[in-house]
Each structure stands twice: as structure tokens, then as C-alpha cells.
Amino acid sequence: MSSRPPLRALLLALLASLAAATPLRAQAPAASHVPLVQGVEALCLPVADLERSIAFFTEVLEFRLVARHEVEGERWERFLAVFPLRLEIAVLSLGDERLELWQYWAPHASDANGTVQPNDAAFQHIAIVVSDMARAYAKLRAHRVRHASSGPQRLPDWNPNAGGIEAFYFRDPDLHYLELIAFPPGKGEERWQAKDRLFLGIDHTAIAVADTERSLAFYRDALGFRVAGTSENHGHEQERLNGVFASRVRITTLRAPRGPGIELLEYLAPGAGRPLDERRRANDLGAWQIRLAADPERAAVAARPFATLGPRSPGVATLGEAPLGFVSVALFGDPDGHLLQASSIPPTGPRASACLGR
User: Fold this and answer.
1) Are 316 and 296 in contact (CB under 8 A)?
2) How many C-beta atoms surround the C-beta of residue 358 within 10 A?
3) Model confidence over 125-184: pLDDT tens digits?
4) CATH number at residue 111
5) Rounded to an integer, what distance in angstroms lies between the CA atom of residue 255 and that of residue 151?
6) Please, are residues 342 and 300 in contact by the beta-carbon 8 Å criterion?
7) Is residue 27 part of a domain?
8) Whole-number Å distance between alpha carbons of 122 and 111
9) How many domains does the chain have?
10) Which of 184, 240, 249, 355 satisfies CB 3.0 to 4.6 Å to 289 for a cystine?
11) Are 328 and 319 within 8 A, CB to CB?
12) Is residue 5 part of a domain?
């Protein structure tokens, strides 16, 4: 009869000897996830009359004029897919946020803003935070600003994520939608509780979307935004705020590491309105643009599976100079056709500017 030890015992002895002979290695820490988009740097708004719009935003809404630039040439034409191009830009600031007003001297901007409804795909606005809604509304009334809401609305307390927020929609001289918003204690960022100024900054830009899940696949999964909050708003207050009868709105707030948020507005009722006009170009008055701090080539590749009809750069444009704080940039659309720029703004560099929406 064989006196060999059982095979199981031999295997255990072999494993033990290997473990003793092999030094232990420290396990490398998992690499932290760095989102593609590092910030929302600017909101860009086409206007028909730059001087008129500068006066409106600085005198009525207390923005500050930071700089003015005029650009032209092949590199900017490739960036914006607009030809032949001459563009004048006014850079404004409010608090930490920046807004750019873009007047196209050539080709002249087309105008369809007056017919846009809040549930149409073209809808976008910026939310301007105020410290006192009654005083801010009184100032707009004194300047005879055009209403989009019937008046300031206080969202009801039954809505845990939005209750107590006051909001009011209105229009600028080109009929772009804008919003005043006031946050009660405990909602919004702590800085929005400041009382030293009436107009404090831009909390977010809001955009109408047809399908929140599709938009999340783009903004969250492809570009790296995080979901900062959700809400479902309905009732008389919401109807009087947005001017859409029997509206029920699914709201999803997205944030990058810095800058204003992007708010997705999906109208569950009465449903999505008109889609974007396939002929829209970057110089149309309704073509807001959101500038992202992100590698232009990587961002354009990430956006490609979601490509929609409309203007986009044929590739990454190198501008040769940096009047707005960046040199390389790409223009592309989100799943609903809202325009975004990915620009090579250094994470520690100057914050260049802003482009619009809610």
C-alpha cells in the first residue's frame, strides 16, 4: 500500500511555501474619478443690440461690465460654424458668475424668441438670485420689464425640495426668458443668504428636455456632472410661474465642481412642446451657449453618440489668441440641441465668461 501523503495535503503545503516566499505588496489605492467637465465657466447669450442689452443687465439687474472684445476670421468661423463672421462680445459679471452678450454684426441674428414657450425644446433661461424678492420685483416693475409670470410665486411647502423658494419669470429686451429666484434659509448655497446686495449671482441655467434619462446619460454619464437635487413641481404656483396651464415639471439639477448648475426641465404635462428648428444656427437669438471647462477633444468625442442636428464645430478650433481666456474650443449640442462649448480653460486660470438657460 502506498505511503504517499494525500494530494490535498501536498497542495496545501505548496501554497503555504509560496506565501512564505512571496513578500506582501501594498495594494495601490483606487484612482479617484476626475469628471470630464471641471466647471461651467460662462453663459453666452446672442443679442440684437449690444448697447441696449448692456444697459438692461447693468442698470436693471446690477451686473458689472468687465470687458469688451471684437473677433472675426476663419478660426472663429470654424468654431461657431457661422460664415462670414464678425462678433462683438461684452463680458458681464454678477457675484462669482459671468455672462457674455454676443452681438453678431455678420451674419445678422435671426429672431424667433418671441414665440418660444417654456415647454418648447428651445427654452432656456438663467436664474438670478436675489436677497429680497419684493424689492427686486419692484425694481423690475419700475423699469417696466416684460412679465412672463403673473408675479413672484412662492412654491408650496408640501414640496420638500422646493417649498419656500420664491421665483419670477420675465423677459429681456430680446425676449429671452430670465428668472429671479430667492432661497429661504436651508435651501440653496449658503452664499445665497447674503443681504448686502439685492442681486447676488447666477444659480443655474435651465433647459427644457424631452427625456430626463436621455439627458442624464449625456450630462452625468458622459460629461461627469453630478445630480445635486430633484423635484417634481405642479399646482397653481407652477402654472403661474411658467405660464403653462396644468403643467407638471420633473426638475433635475446638475452640478460641476464649480460654476452655475444646469437644470433639466422635463414637462410631464402637458408634454414636450415644439422641437428645435433644424435650420437653427449659432447666431440665432435663441441659441444660448453654455461654456464648459473641459478638454475640447475628449468632450466632443463623448458628445458624439448624442449628436443632434444643428450647429457644431467641424473639429476642435484653435483660436490663436485668448480674449475670453481660452485658445482651444469645440461647439456641440446636447440630446435636445442645446449648445455647449468645451474650452481649454486651465482649472486654476481666469474664469472667462457665461452662456444661458433654464
Assistant:
1) yes
2) 28
3) 999 999 999 999 999 999 999 999 999 999 999 999 999 999 999 999 999 999 999 999
4) 3.10.180.10
5) 28
6) yes
7) no
8) 12
9) 1
10) 355
11) yes
12) no
Query: At which residue does the C-alpha cell 418660444 appear?
Result: 116
Q: Is 246 a member of any domain? A: yes
Rounded to two decimals, the pTM is: 0.86
| Residues whose CB falls within 8 Å of the CB of residue 309, separated by 6 or more in sequence, listed in order | 276, 278, 337
The label of the residue with cell 486660470 reads 349
- Within a domain: residue 204? yes
CA distances from 319 to 14, 77, 102, 316, 331 (A): 65, 10, 17, 10, 13
CA-CA distance, 154 to 244, in Å (whole number)? Answer: 17
Nine-digit cell string for 117: 414657450
Torsion on CA atoms 305, 83, 356, 148, rounded to nearest 10: -110
CA distance 336 to 121: 7
Domain holding 99, by residue range, is 39-343
